[in-house]
Amino acid sequence: MASKRSILTAIILGGVVAATLDIGAAMLISGASLTTILHFIASGLIGKAAFDGGAATAALGAVLQELMGLIIAAVFVLATLAAPALRRAWIAAGLAYGVVIYGVMNYVVMPLSAVGRYPTFSVEGLVKNGLAMLAFGLIIAGFARRSLPATD
To answer: Which of 11, 45, 75, 89 lies at a 20 to 30 A Cα distance from 141?
Structure first.
C-alpha cells in the first residue's frame, strides 16, 4: 500500500516537472516569450485583460499552470492506486494519458475558458502539441512509477 508521502511525492514531482516543461514546450512551439505564454495561460481565467496585466498576470499564469499540472498528476496517480497495472505499463499508460490530456485541454478546458478558444486543426499543430502532451503524460506516469511502491 502506498504511503501518503509517496502519493504526494508522485503528484508534486510529476505535476510540477510536467507543467514547468510544458511551458518550455509552449515557448518552443509558438516562438513566444515566457511572459506571453504565462499571460496566455492567465487569459483562460481572466480573459484578454491578462495581456495588459504585466508581472501580476504572468505570475497568475505560472500559478495556474502549476495547479493544472498538480491536478492532472493527481488524477493519474490516484487512478494508479485503483489500477496498479497503470504503473506496471507506465509507458503505455503515460502515452494514453497524454492523449487524454490533449483532448481535455483542447476540447473541454480551452472552449470553456474566458478566451473560449476552439482548436483549429493543422497537422503541424497536432504533431507539435500532441508530442508535448504525450511527454506530459509520460513524465507524470514516470514519477508515479518511481515514487509509488512496485506492484505485482
So the answer is: 45
